[in-house]
Design goal:
The structure holds 2 protein chains of 2 kinds. By secondary structure, chain A is of the alpha+beta class. Chain A is about 35% helix and about 25% strand. A 4-stranded antiparallel β-sheet of chain A has the order 4-3-6-5. Chain B is mainly α. Chain B has 6 helices and no strands. The chains are: A alpha+beta, B mainly alpha.
Chain lengths: ~170, ~120
């Protein structure tokens, strides 16, 4: 009788252990695969790269960039063939989820002035998208900001600073 | 009496086994939640492009420098490919980038020249 009772208890214990292990595995899978990925940095880097491609033509800066009638905040998307429209799934269509800022500075390559000097000589400032993203997202791992040196075909040299930010908070992990 | 002692020791073995299983489970649950945190960027490690994708920005600068003329009207690119002093060209880089990029000067220039030749 005692032996049979112990056996019953052992079966119960077996199931309990099995349940704990199975529950743990299910929980781990749910935690890992349930967590959203954060693609903001990658997307902003791609956006930044595409913006550079838009500004350059055959390794020189496009002439249109220096013509405010052809290249301005209103037609930057058109000029660069960008589309800031996003999927409706998260009802983001009304809010801009992207931000691009382009600053172009005069730069004399023969003098090579330090940063403090050339940063004072901004000649072009272009901005498009949701500028609020610029204040909300400041972490290095959320935004993409790069500077590069380039020149026009006529020989004038410039430093171009580009900042690209992607919002899409609902789609990415916070 | 002997049976009872045997039953007690068996129960202890089971308790220890349970403790080990639960312990392992706790460790793996903790590890999983850590990995999930990394995935969502809570630990400052969002997904990043691990290739030299963005270094192309640096290469744009280098190409720009190659196409720039020096005070004698000679392209820096021509000077560099002839192995002449490139101090002035490096100064341009220094105005924009940190030391890290300057260290990459020689391999990058070699790569670009290799692509041209």
């Amino acid at each position: 009788m005692d032996k049979r009772g112990a056996k019953k208890l052992m079966i119960f214990y077996w199931f309990l252990l099995f349940g704990i292990v199975a529950g743990g595995v299910v929980y781990q899978v749910a935690v890992f695969y349930g967590a959203p990925y954060n693609f903001r940095k990658i997307e902003s880097e791609i956006l930044l790269k595409k913006t550079i491609d838009c500004l350059l033509e055959k390794n020189y800066l496009r002439e249109e960039v220096f013509d405010a009638t052809k290249f301005n905040n209103k037609n930057l998307l058109e000029q660069c063939k960008f589309t800031f429209q996003v999927e409706d799934e998260y009802d983001n269509s009304e809010r801009a989820q992207y931000y691009i800022k382009i600053d172009i500075f005069n730069f004399d390559p023969l003098k090579s002035p330090p940063r403090e000097e050339w940063e004072k000589s901004r000649i072009i400032n272009l901005e498009i998208g949701n500028s609020n993203l610029n204040t909300v997202m400041t972490k290095e791992n959320e935004i993409s900001s790069k500077e590069f040196y380039s020149l026009r075909e006529s020989g004038e040299s410039y430093i171009i600073k580009i900042l690209a930010i992607v919002g899409k908070f609902e789609k990415n992990g916070l | 009496m002997v049976y009872k002692r045997a039953q007690v020791s068996e129960a202890i073995i089971w308790l220890i086994a349970t403790a080990i299983v639960v312990g392992l489970l706790v460790v793996s649950v903790y590890a999983t939640s850590k990995l999930a945190d990394d995935k969502t960027g809570k630990e400052e490690s969002t997904l990043e492009i691990k290739t030299s994708y963005l270094d192309s920005v640096y290469f744009h600068s280098l190409v720009g420098i190659f196409l720039t003329k020096n005070s004698k009207g000679v392209l820096f690119g021509d000077e560099i490919s002839l192995g002449e002093d490139t101090g002035k060209a490096r100064e341009i880089l220094r105005s924009i980038y940190t030391l890290k990029y300057e260290e990459e000067w020689t391999p990058s220039v070699t790569a670009i020249l290799g692509g041209i030749r």
